[in-house]
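Q: What would this chain look like folded?
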Amino acid sequence: MNKLKIPHNAFVFVGDGRRALFLRNEGDEKFPNLKTESVFEGDNPPTHEQGSERPGRVSKALDSGQRSAVEPVDWHRIEEHRFARKVAAAMEQVVRARNVPALVVVAPPRTLADLRSAFHADVKGRVIAEINKDLTRHSVGEIEKHLTDVA
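A: My prediction, written as structure tokens:
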């Protein structure tokens, strides 16, 4: 079982669609020492607070008189997509400005998918691991422990 090796000065991105942490490894591969570089918090209230319109209706055929409901808009999910694009752009700036050697991405599945599609090729080329977990509410020490326990 190989442990995840996070190089010195590599970044660890931990996010969930509402909150994101950019951590940098001040330690080495054997003894990581993650330090918080920046924190992003999105303002994303529940959908029922963002939109108040009732779902629309669509006529199936002009002569039939049948109508069916249209799926309501999930404003909360739309904002999570926007947030992922925003932090992906910020990560691109960090990767270029700081010449980041490697990147570990930790996020739940939907956020990982959003990030994969939003990351620039420069960022994608530095990703050494993707971990499907939501660790945004954990302390930096707990995040370190989760990452060093990953096989």
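The chain has five helices and seven strands.
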